[in-house]
Specification:
By secondary structure, this protein is α+β, with helices and mostly antiparallel strands. It is built from five helices and six strands.
Length: about 190
């Protein structure tokens, strides 16, 4: 995944991703018109375990990038902006969506059984990737990273598909949310 948001030293600001020549994708334009935007994300700290610094960095970057750049809108609900609280309870993803005033707008609960293989494979490839960064050639690192990105895309596509009846979001937002779902899977 390309480095976005703050660098490891925390000094580099995020770079905006320009829209293509035809403008933003349709779902992105729709969410923007509706004011759909996440302005705050919290994770259930009771289920989060501090892990390897690389994973903590991925978590921090995903949270930062998600708030800085996202397109997210409830299908049947107010247009936003939104505060999200993510938790995994009894092997289900719980997304509490609130307005900026803290009033609950929606609670989305989704079984995570369909994500089990993707998350497991993603963690295995990430471990290989972090190990390769320290000892492998650039071509080996690139090959592992391609696999990592493919699994990440598969997981974010599945997340977007499973939430489609409740939420409209763009691909980038789904990718960042999938990263956070993976972080929530890390338990002691």
């Amino acid at each position: 995944m390309p480095m976005r948001g703050p660098s490891r030293s925390g000094s580099r600001p995020p770079r905006p991703v320009p829209d293509g020549p035809a403008g933003p994708p349709p779902e992105r334009a729709e969410a923007k018109r509706a004011g759909g935007r996440i302005v705050r994300v919290t994770l259930d700290e009771h289920t989060i375990v501090r892990r390897h610094p690389d994973i903590e960095h991925e978590r921090a970057v995903a949270l930062y990038d998600l708030v800085e750049e996202n397109d997210f809108r409830l299908v049947d609900g107010p247009p936003g902006p939104y505060h999200l609280h993510l938790a995994i309870i009894d092997n289900r993803l719980r997304v509490a969506v609130c307005g900026t005033d803290g009033d609950p707008l929606a609670e989305i609960v989704m079984p995570l059984v369909a994500f089990r293989r993707i998350v497991r494979d993603y963690f295995l490839v990430c471990e290989s990737y972090y190990a390769a960064i320290r000892r492998s050639s650039p071509s080996q690192i690139e090959a592992i990273d391609m696999g990592r990105r493919a699994l990440h895309d598969e997981g974010s596509g599945l997340l977007r598909e499973r939430l489609a009846d409740r939420v409209v979001m763009d691909h980038g937002t789904a990718r960042r949310l999938f990263t956070l779902v993976c972080v929530l899977h890390l338990r002691g």
